[in-house]
Protein: Gut-specific cysteine proteinase
Organism: Hypsibius exemplaris
Amino acid sequence: MNDFSSHLSVTVALYVLNCVATSTVSLHRDMDGERIDFINRCHHDGKRGTWTARRNFRIGQTDEEKRALTGVLFRPTTLPNLPPSHPTRAVASLPATFDARLKWPNCTIISDVRNQLQCGSCWAHTGASVISDRLCIASPGQKTNFKASVQDILTCNNKVPWNITSSCFGGYLDTPFAMWTTTGQYSGVVSGGEYGSSIGCKPYTAMDAACSLSCSNSDYGNSYANDKTHGFRAYNLGLPYPSTKETPTSAAIIDAIRNDIMTNGPLAVAFDVYADFYLYGLGIYKHTTGSSMGGHGLTVIGWGTDGGVDYWLMKNSWGPNWGSLGGFVKFLRGINHLGIETALAAALPLAPAATPPTTAKTSMTGRN
């Protein structure tokens, strides 16, 4: 081999090595780390940043793994609308700050943060959370420790006549409440604790399965039928779907949502989740960077204002180690940010003392 050929071989080899090295670095680029740096620079440099980011999941978490932590699907609502013209208390009595955990301190279930794991069941988790919270609030001393079973909602919702099956591959925000308030042998929801627990009738398994009318926990001292709880009335409130995002939400809508939380307890809500939400640490979340990951469900338990910025106080379903607030998040309030004030859902666990106004099913398209 002559000198030119030797030089050419070395050059090609170095070029190939450099290309491989460059590709390897690109494939293993820490996008979340870059997002954390960007978000925190925006916050500390005073560039309208309202929150700080941190790493909540392992380095290298893929977009597929991120999407498995979401799961809310969207469709026209099946629930009657609770119009903002029916406030449950005078607007003047609404406090600037409210936290359901403080108003109902005996209902420690409100502080309970579950973990959906790699199953797109956030829709079932927020439903189970709202059902558990409202049962405790409506029946002081009777359902203090009742945990509505995510697994029961996940596996038996397809037995409700009108429903399109919801599963680990996604579901609808109104499904748990329709299931809880309908009639028939598949109506209602039993108890069930977190993954790996032996709490309640049907603990969470993070997997789809056939519907069973018996408790999976053989050590539980109650039958499936006797463990059932039932709701009184499921409903939808908030902005109609579709509604313009990132524009001011009317005071009537905001007050109707706050009224309902303060009177009846937490609500289920869905929004368009982006990659930066997974990195939430502290402050008031506002989408800053990253691509869309789908729809995600949260449980709204209160509201407040921090540094002149209004927020909703929300409970997530990614475990208590997500974020710096023990699994909770402050979320920008008042501009329908990412659709957060569109078509919230809930149900009443007991018939109210006074007959509520008649509300026919709305033809309004809703978001679930």
Summary: Residues 3-27 form the longest helix (25 residues).
